[in-house]
UniProtKB/TrEMBL annotation:
Keyword vocabulary terms for this entry: Activator, ATP-binding, DNA-binding, Lyase, Nucleotide-binding, Transcription, Transcription regulation
Keyword Lyase in record: yes
Keyword Lyase annotated: yes
Domain (Sigma-54 factor interaction): residue spans on this chain: 363-592
InterPro entries from the UniProt entry: AAA+_ATPase, AAA_lid_NorR, GAF-like_dom_sf, Homeodomain-like_sf, P-loop_NTPase, PAS, PAS-assoc_C, PAS-like_dom_sf
Entries under SUPFAM superfamilies matching the protein: GAF domain-like, Homeodomain-like, P-loop containing nucleoside triphosphate hydrolases, PYP-like sensor domain (PAS domain)
Source taxon at top rank: Bacteria
Protein name per the record: Formate hydrogenlyase transcriptional activator
Coiled-coil stretches noted in the UniProt entry, renumbered to this chain: none
CDD domains: AAA, PAS
Occurrences of domain PAC (ranges): 99-155
Amino acid sequence: MIDKISAWDMNTASSLQNRDERTDDQSPWDFRLLFDRSPVGVYVVQSGQIRYANPAMGDLLGREPKTIANNSLLSFIHPDDRSMAEEHRQQQGAETEATRFLTRIVRADGTIATVEMMESPLQDESLASPSDDAVMVGVMMDVTAHRQADLEIQERLGFEQLLANLSAGFVNLPCDQIDSRIDASLKALVEFLGNDRSTFVEFGDDDDYVMVSHSYAVPGCPRFPIGPFAVAHLPWFINQFRSGNRVFVRRIPQDFPVDAVKEREHCLQQGIQSNVTVPLKAGGELLGGLTFAFLRKQCEWPREIMSRLDLVGGVFANVLLRRRNEEVLQKTMEENLRLRQQLEQENLYLREQAVLKHHHGKIVGHSDAITRVLADVERVATTDAPVLLTGETGTGKELLAQTIHELSDRKNRPMIVVNCASLPATLIESELFGRAAGAYTGAASAAVGRFELADGSTLFLDEIGEFPLELQAKLLRVLQDGRFERLGTAKTISVDVRIIAATNRDLEAATRKNLFRSDLFYRLNVFPICVPPLRERCEDIPPLTWAFVEAFGRRMGKSIKSIPRKTMKQLQSHDWPGNIRELSNTIERAMILANSDTLHIETPATSRDAADRQKTLKEVERDQILFVLEKTGWRIRGSGGAAECLDIKPTTLEARMAKLGIKRPNQ
Ligand SMILES: Nc1ncnc2c1ncn2[C@@H]1O[C@H](COP(=O)(O)OP(=O)(O)OP(=O)(O)O)[C@@H](O)[C@H]1O
């Protein structure tokens, strides 16, 4: 065996031929020549030592073939690949089949090449299996170019996959999830590209600041602080990508231009070794920049990577543009909605004003308060629902009742008015429901009641709070089913009457005191309208004043051209307890006294007292008696009784009560 091996000594290479001669194989080939001319590297190795290497092998290793022999084959293999190559060799040691593997070799000039190696034992028929010192013949081929191409294809595919994933992640993504998706995408990018930190910078309206909106850094590296960032801190760098340029500074600080003074300082302070930044451009707009920083090592990316990073930037820029457009759209939609609502309100107001002009000719005023009341009036007018008008005296309840009637389908028939306070209790029943002849003493003839009169029309029950308790059940029945009997007859009459009631009392409180039937109250209170006092709508005072001035002026033949501003201000600051009626009376008085075309109006001195002063004697008497009766718990006689308080005889008090229709509730 030793003899045979010596035949592979390079110096005795011709022994190959000798061996052929010994085998008596009459081959016409010169085998040494064959190996020497072979375009692939051929070598013979024993116990890991190269015994023979052909010239192509020398070319591969960048050495003279002679200098290769007697060296360990492993010594030419890249240190990182040696253990793998050794494993293959070990494996080969146990087999007779050829083994094949890829490895890197280091050339004499230090360059690295990827080679494919195939080795197989030189079989000796006398041995059953290859031994440790078996002679191996190997072939080595340079596959660097193929390998590089393979790696590039793989890398390109990986990058395309990353890009596809990034893009897909943003498709149909709701706006509020874009930020978290950008964060996740930055992380994926850093993990794929192997840099240490990626940061998202957006341009805003302020030229002096950019907005650092997202940043991801590998564990152990600090994230770039999120928030506004002054351009003055990194002027060269920011202006580069703000002008649409890419930034690639492989070696920091050497590769920085001289004017990047702040950048040099910043990077040294932060430990940034390389920086790559691509501008974010979409739809012809520059929206920001995406930076890739290297803190633990320098960037080894080839320059060609920039065009790929542009693609990544394009994905993000489109997302930013979409978000920006959606924000604009959202703002526009909100603005549209606001304008639409405003327009609707204005239309409503104009419609109400138009209604005021066309249908409520007698009602003066354009305050929000009266406009709201009129809107309610219009809404309820066309229905048959009962309406309860509440509000202080003189606020215009009767005028509004008239307006409701005039806006209803019943307008062709007159509205019938009943003032419940002005009729004595004994008369109110026949007034409302009518009577048969002789129904009671003094009722000589039959009379049609107001309900019958109001058939097909509207019945306005003014001062409903004064309606006698004992008649409230009968009133309720008519309201519920439109049926009643005239006094003194059993014949039921059916009517179609729409009821509008008004009161300046708190009817609900009266029901609690059992002064008013709650079932009647609820029946009347289907559509309550509260008429605001004049002091709560003082912007109506000037137009009301002028309306009264014109009305009285026409009647009195006087023409008023001006009212001093101060006077008008005084009118507006008065609290008008008697409301519009009081204002009307005040103007009437002033008009009587007026002797020039400027009207001087004296506002009533006191407010509440003045209202009382406008009450009739009967009203004042009634109020006072009721006040005392309630205070004394309706006790008329005896010490501390109502008669004593009023300083009149109990019988006189009883007579006055009967005359004024004052009765104790629940009696
Ligand atoms: N908005 C208004 N525009 C013009 N005149 C009005 C207005 N409101 C009320 N008036 C006038 O004020 C006076 C009082 O109004 P009205 O009788 O309707 O009030 P009221 O609330 O029914 O009072 P009371 O509760 O004392 O019965 C009337 O002459 C009425 O024409």
